[in-house]
């Protein structure tokens, strides 16, 4: 009790003195809050576990306390970029309302890095979201969990931790769906919803979850969640599921706010972070190449009303820099299912007008387009290339990394390096200057998508620089027609740098798994940058579910 009083008075004192040195915070009445997401390159090589954790912790603290972060209310770091299995930490439960920072001198229960980050949240008066490897004494849980404990007496979890502005742990989410990781699961799944003092309720999930109904879509549809925190180490797949493209599509299709933090290791495919305001599009986003970055992206995020005019990112550096150069030096997968699309090559010149229809099973879509001449060139390589386009329609199942399937229905136009189907979804090599043969003056794709209990319709677009078109450039319309949704995506401003333009419908697992035999298993990866060991190199990256 005495300790509690001491703690409270310390907090009050600190609270008062710190108030003057930290940025303004948003409150319940503000129409927006300020969010930061970190694209974070972890270290791998030549350091001990202790050194790596110290390095990561120092870098987290530096970003968190940087001038760019001054106005943020909440900062999100990506998965798997802090500690590892060799140095897991205990994490208090949210109910216990523990502030690890205040226990610094009395207990070694929490690892130093957890204490330091709790102190960082407290000093900087911001919410902080991190991911770490957690340990728990089985004994603490024995009353609830009848399963046999490991011989060392510990449960090891993949855990997300949220600190409030006082450094108190207010949310602890232990991952439910684990795959090849040597991790434990909770006996009962835990919900990861938390409230903030600026009046915004968040739910958090990770990586692959974005492609499945439970829990991601369920949180939106059944729990009314409007703000999602998403941490990832996601490997992009052309032409529909590159990282920022998927994040923006999902946020727009659901009209919810998404704060997405990605780990940055582009040579293996991992990159992609951003802040998305539902149908108002991206407030800030980044896709990087080569060795990756440690970069904070900041935006003022309108609270749940996405109808207002689009608010600008506070720090537009990265987004603005994402101008015209095609992105290269980033490993990507290609959707092999593209070979199974019903498609036709668009026969376009600098002054064409076309209207086409293409069907796959019971889904038919139309494409209408008008082209004009283009004077642009993108990049400054020694070779020259121009993309051709196919209009393709697909309905069917796709798998991801493990035996989980989604039924998807896609109508899209996508870029190909020549007139063959096999070249679709491929990119010209880095030394190519892209010289478009024409620009789209008008472009519309429309189709009627059968209603289903589980369905998410998403606008899906991609530019040469691996960002999506924004609401100023593209219109998205979904009209409820009793048994179906009339869906249309329409180009608003002429464009000559498109890689993808279409409609992506996820019917999740709603239709029974039929006809899988013989259908291609399409693997999409979330990358674990390390799994239990730091002794990892380019050739031995392990791909696992995340
Ligand atoms: C934490 O990150 C790891 C990757 O290192 C990931 O597998 C895990 O799912 C994450 N945990 C949570 C709760 O998001
Ligand atoms: C812990 O001890 C150090 C030095 O011994 C002191 O500077 C610090 O304020 C103490 N922290 C708390 C939370 O009491
Ligand atoms: C936790 O994982 C270990 C190692 O895989 C296993 O031996 C143990 O039974 C698991 N504990 C529980 C409670 O499931």
Describe the structure.
With 546 residues, this protein is an alpha+beta fold. It has 2 domains: 302 residues, 4-Layer Sandwich (Nitrilase/N-carbamoyl-D-aminoacid amidohydrolase); 208 residues, no CATH class. It is built from 7 helices and 28 strands. Helix 2 packs parallel to helix 3. One 2-acetamido-2-deoxy-beta-D-glucopyranose binds next to strand 4.
Please describe the biggest sheet, giving its number of strands, its sense, and whether it closes into a barrel: 6 strands, mixed
Which small-molecule ligands are present, each listed once?
A: 2-acetamido-2-deoxy-beta-D-glucopyranose
Q: Give the tally of β-strands.
A: 28
Low-confidence stretches: 1-21, 306-323, 511-523, 528-546
Count of domain modules: 2
CATH class of the largest domain: Alpha Beta
Averaged pLDDT? 84
Supply the CATH architecture of the largest domain. 4-Layer Sandwich
- Computed CA radius of gyration, to the nearest angstrom: 24 Å
Q: What characteristic shape results from the CA principal axes?
A: globular
Bin the helical content: 10-25%
**Head-to-tail CA distance between termini:** 42 Å
* Strand adjacency order, main sheet: 5-4-3-2-1-13
% residues in beta strands: 25-35%
Secondary-structure-based class equals alpha+beta
- What's the CATH H-level homologous superfamily of the largest domain? Carbon-nitrogen hydrolase
Number of helices: 7
CATH overall fold name of the largest domain: Nitrilase/N-carbamoyl-D-aminoacid amidohydrolase
């Amino acid at each position: 009790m005495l300790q509690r009083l001491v703690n409270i008075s310390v907090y009050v004192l600190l609270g008062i003195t710190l108030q003057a040195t930290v940025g303004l915070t948003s409150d319940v009445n503000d129409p927006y809050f300020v969010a930061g997401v970190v694209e974070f390159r972890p270290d791998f090589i030549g350091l001990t576990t202790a050194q790596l954790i110290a390095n990561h912790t120092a870098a987290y603290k530096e970003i968190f306390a940087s001038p760019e972060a001054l106005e943020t209310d909440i900062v999100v770091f990506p998965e798997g970029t802090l500690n590892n299995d060799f140095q897991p930490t205990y994490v208090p439960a949210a109910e216990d309302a523990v502030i690890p920072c205040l226990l610094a001198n009395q207990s070694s229960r929490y690892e130093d890095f957890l204490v330091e980050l709790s102190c960082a949240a407290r000093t900087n008066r911001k919410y902080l979201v991190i991911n770490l490897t957690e340990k728990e004494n089985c004994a603490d849980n024995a009353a609830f969990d009848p399963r046999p404990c490991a011989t060392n007496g510990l449960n090891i979890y993949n855990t997300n931790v949220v600190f409030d502005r006082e450094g108190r742990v207010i949310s602890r989410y232990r991952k439910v769906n684990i795959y090849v990781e040597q991790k434990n699961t909770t006996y009962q799944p835990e919900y990861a919803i938390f409230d903030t003092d600026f009046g915004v309720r968040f739910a958090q999930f990770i990586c692959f979850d974005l492609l499945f109904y439970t829990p991601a879509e369920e949180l939106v549809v059944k729990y009314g969640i409007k703000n999602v925190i998403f941490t990832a180490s996601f490997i992009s797949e052309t032409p529909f599921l590159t990282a920022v493209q998927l994040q923006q599509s999902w946020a727009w299709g659901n009209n919810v706010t998404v704060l997405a933090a990605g780990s940055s290791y582009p040579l293996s495919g991992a990159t992609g972070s951003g802040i998305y305001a539902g149908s108002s599009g991206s407030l800030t986003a980044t896709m990087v190449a080569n060795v990756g970055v440690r970069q904070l992206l900041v935006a003022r995020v309108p609270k749940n009303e996405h109808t207002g005019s689009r608010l600008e990112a506070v720090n537009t550096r990265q987004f603005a820099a994402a101008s015209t150069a095609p992105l290269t030096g980033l490993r990507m997968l290609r959707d092999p299912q593209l070979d199974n699309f019903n498609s036709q090559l668009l026969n376009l010149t600098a002054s064409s007008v076309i209207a086409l229809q293409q069907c796959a099973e019971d889904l038919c879509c139309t494409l209408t387009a008008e082209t004009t001449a283009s004077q642009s060139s993108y990049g400054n390589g020694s070779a020259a290339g121009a993309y051709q386009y196919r209009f393709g329609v697909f309905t069917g199942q796709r798998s991801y990394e493990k035996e989980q399937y989604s039924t998807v229905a896609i109508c899209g136009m996508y870029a190909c390096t020549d007139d063959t189907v096999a070249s679709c979804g491929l990119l010209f090599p880095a030394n190519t200057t892209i010289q478009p043969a024409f620009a789209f003056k008008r472009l519309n794709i429309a189709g009627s998508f059968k209603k289903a209990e589980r369905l998410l319709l998403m606008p899906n677009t991609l530019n040469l620089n691996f960002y999506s078109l924004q609401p100023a450039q593209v219109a998205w319309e979904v009209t409820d027609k009793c048994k179906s949704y009339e869906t249309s995506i329409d180009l608003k401003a002429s464009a000559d740098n498109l890689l993808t333009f279409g409609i992506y419908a996820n019917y999740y697992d709603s239709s029974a798994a039929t006809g899988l035999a013989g259908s291609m298993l399409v693997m999409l990866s979330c990358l674990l940058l390390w799994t239990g060991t730091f002794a990892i190199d380019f050739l031995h990256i392990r791909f696992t579910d995340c």
